[in-house]
Amino acid sequence: MIGIFGANGFIGRHLAQRLQSRGRKFKAISRHFTPDFVAAHGGSAELVEANFADPLAMVSALDGLDTVVQLVSTSSPGMQNLHSVADIRENVIPHVAFLQTCVAAGVRRYVFLSSGGTVYGPTNDVPIREDSETNPISSHGLTKLMVEKYIQMHGRVDGLDYVILRLANPFGPGQHYRKAQGLIPAILGRHQEGLPVKVIGDGSARRDYVFIDDVIDAIELAVGEPRAARGIINIGSGEARSVSEILGAIEDILGLRIEREYVDVRKTDVAISQLDIGRASSLLGWRPKTPFRTGLERTLAEFSPAPRVAR
């Protein structure tokens, strides 16, 4: 049985939907489940409301699981380095405790979603390979890298079978702007509020964006592919697009003009993040199937372009 930790988040919801559609048994773990999640999965999956930072609750949640997909995170790159101590307290210490519990419980495979956009830091090595240097300049990236190292340690010392997926910027239907994370929902949310979109710098910063269905494909493969054992694998589109390009594409699809407000560059952002996805092809047999434009159109299909009146 597969356990999805952080099941009520953007990626977790899509993974739960996919597993249910395939008739796979899974347990969904989250601090809280919304009524629509309970309605969709309460009859087919075991739903466990538990705090990831509660060791005893996690012991109980792991009962009967042989595979863990760990999606829990309370930080984001947008938080910059303003809460580094809290970041360690909330995203490193509980994860270390959870890993120890997984080892004791005999978890067969541990799939961790890391950050392909922040663990590497500034680099001229583009597209970025998994063996590129890791010099994160944000607390978010550094905590992800620390967790990666603990996972690798347990792999070497305790025989934990793991797969680390360094994920680019996922997007798709059902992604809501929160925690200063997600460019596309941030653009749509600001526009709906009648506010200008804040563009950092001149809009030339380039990022790798990957559609959610392709992300779920990669997670499914990581759960069961023997070749991926103890692998670190980039998951992205292999392409980079600027903020200005994203804004232009949204305007073109929706047929409207989005107001911009240009703000200062943040010290914790890199100029470009574009992942090399060759290893995903060789170890997982995975490549993204969804062209960016197609994914964006599907994302915008549920969006109401009429802005609310600002007061």
The profile of the biggest β sheet is: 7 strands, parallel
Number of strands: 13
Overall pLDDT score: 94
Helix content: 25-40%
Helix and strand composition category: alpha/beta
Order of helices and strands: EHEHEHEHHEHEEHEEEHEEHEHH
Which blocks of ≥5 consecutive residues have pLDDT under 50? none
The helix tally amounts to 11
The rounded Rg comes to 19 Å
Distance between the termini: 50 Å
Which shape, going by the Cα principal axes?
A: globular
**Strands in their spatial order, largest beta sheet:** 3-2-1-4-5-6-11
The amount of beta strand, in percent, is 15-25%
Structure write-up:
By secondary structure, this protein is α/β, with parallel strands linked by helices. It is 38% helix and 17% strand. It has helices at 10-21, 35-41, 55-61, 84-91, 93-105, 139-158, 183-192, 212-224, 243-254, 278-284, 292-300; strands spanning 2-5, 26-30, 46-49, 67-70, 109-115, 162-167, 169-171, 197-200, 206-207, 209-211, 231-235, 241-242, 260-263. The strands form 4 sheets. The chain has a 7-stranded parallel sheet, with helices on both faces. Strands 7-10 form a two-stranded parallel ribbon. Helix 1 crosses helix 8 and helix 5 runs parallel beside helix 6 (139-158).
